[in-house]
Design goal:
The protein is α+β, with helices and mostly antiparallel strands and about 150 residues long. The chain has one domain. It is built from 3 helices and 8 strands. The strands form 2 sheets. Strands 1-5-6-8 form a 4-stranded mixed β-sheet. Strands 2-7-4-3 form a 4-stranded antiparallel β-sheet. The longest helix has 14 residues. It is globular and about 50 Å long.
Length: about 150
């Protein structure tokens, strides 16, 4: 009986996880430092997108403000990646109930290559397909980095 309960719980958990389709809009240097841990900010409307606009250069801000918010949702991913930013990849974006989980991976530095050690805030602006998020949009964003 216990094994059946575990299998049903695992199946319900897997069914509750939605993979979200995304498209990278732009990336670059952020104007605001959010500390040592990467963060995500979800903007389901042009009004909410102003939370992103304050943190990015003008051209990136214009990109997110021109987004079609009837079909898309903007996501800003901010972190202290500095010179390592070019090695950071978005591996997966998924929704679990009201949580949006963003999985990043730090690619290893190629053999024989060197990079600076500077740490400064960087960003990625991503467009998510609104219909992938279902009728109830996420209220929280968790960003994790593998291989850092």
């Amino acid at each position: 009986m216990f094994a059946i309960t575990l299998v049903l719980a695992a199946a319900a958990s897997a069914a509750a996880t939605r993979v979200v389709t995304w498209h990278l809009l732009t990336r670059g240097h952020a104007s605001q430092n959010d500390g040592e841990t990467p963060i995500g900010i979800l903007a389901p409307s042009k009004t909410a997108a102003h939370r992103l606009v304050l943190r990015v250069p003008h051209q990136a801000a214009q990109t997110v403000l021109r987004l079609d918010y009837r079909r898309r949702v903007a996501l800003g991913i901010f972190g202290p990646f500095g010179c390592r930013d070019g090695r950071v990849r978005i591996v997966r974006i998924e929704q679990i109930a009201r949580l949006l989980r963003v999985r990043l991976a730090m690619q290893p530095l190629a053999a024989g290559k060197v990079e600076c050690m500077a740490i400064y805030p960087t960003f990625r602006l991503v467009a998510l397909v609104r219909s992938d998020l279902g009728p109830r949009l996420p209220t929280r964003v968790a960003v994790t980095v593998a291989g850092a």
